[in-house]
Amino acid sequence: PDPGTLASVLTEGVKNTIGDSRVKVTYEPEYVPAVPPAMPDIPPEQLAGMIKATVKVEVLDSNIAYLKIQHIIGEEMAQKVGPLLLEYIWDKVLPTSAMILDFRSAVSGELSGIPYIVSYYTDSEPLIHIDSVYDRPSDITTELWSMPTLLGKRYGTSKPLMILTSKNTLGVAEDVAYCLKNLKRATIVGENTAGGTVKIDKIKVGDTDFYVSVPVAKSINPITGKSWEID
User: Fold this and answer.
1) Taking the chain, what is the end-to-end CA distance rounded to the nearest angstrom?
2) Secondary structure, 3-state, 28-61
3) Where does the record locate the signal sequence feature (predicted)?
4) 60: domain range?
5) Nearest 10 degrees: CA dihedral of 180, 21, 216, 37?
6) What is the pLDDT of residue 160?
7) Is residue 132 part of a domain?
8) Are 176 and 212 in contact, with CB atoms under 8 Å apart?
9) What local confidence, expressed as pLDDT, does residue 3 receive?
10) Count of domains in the chain?
């Protein structure tokens, strides 16, 4: 008689069976599938202002940069507002002698942002195989490589980089941290991250209002041969 309670019981049963906390059963009679938003047709200055609201930048004592990021933008957005972000954010931290990347509140992001961010902390040559993402619905594996050219200058490979994590650090930010850690480019400090995924689909169960949320893509690091997901 109570679909919500049934969904909760089913979720617990699934978790106990397969040991994956990301798989959930929900009852959503009003559910409407989300459509990925198109690139907003608004001035780059306004877009940059929106992005700045999710980023905090400071130069601390001892010339250490502090960069707090809540959302990792994708390459398309970065190309559109990049010059403004360079002026507002990146140019302030480039002269510093070390950097702290704060991902403790980073809960969203775009897959194309992974090589974009990682490349700022690596050399332009040789190109580095950063990550591979297998997408089950399409049966396609996409390799992510470092980028030979970027907007602005790279932070480089010699200056210390520390990444702060928390139990809320989720998805793309987890991938960035894992890649930089295994490239021996960054030191990770903080809690174990959420153990999310790069992509989740919500699948309708027959002719009902029940849905199963399940990971449908997997990140595989070329160095470890493993995934950061769930770990």
Assistant:
1) 37
2) CCCCCCCCCCCCCCCCHHHHHHHHHCCEEEEEEH
3) none
4) 42-200+215-220
5) -80
6) 97
7) yes
8) no
9) 92
10) 1
**The total number of residues written for the chain in this structure:** 231
Residue 77 resides in a domain: yes
> Which residue, among 200, 196, 183, 199, has the nearest Cα to 229 in the 3D structure?
196
Q: Is residue 21 in some structural domain?
A: no
Q: What is the DSSP string of 99-165?
A: EEEE-TT--EE-TTHHHHHHHTTS-SSS--EEEEEEETTTTEEEEEE--S--SS----SSS-EEEEE
What was the pLDDT predicted at 81?
80
CA 54 centroid distance within chain: 14
Give me the pLDDT at residue 230, please.
58
pLDDT in tens, 90-134: 899 999 999 999 999 998 888 889 999 999 999 999 999 999 999
Q: Positive or negative CA dihedral for 72, 24, 202, 138?
A: positive
The answer, yes or no, to whether the previous bond of 37 is cis (omega within 30 of 0) is no
Q: Per the domain annotation, does 183 fall within a domain?
A: yes
Does the pLDDT at position 144 exceed 60? yes
Tell me if the pTM is above 0.70: yes
Distance CA 150, CA 170 (A): 25
Supply the CATH number for residue 167's domain: 3.90.226.10
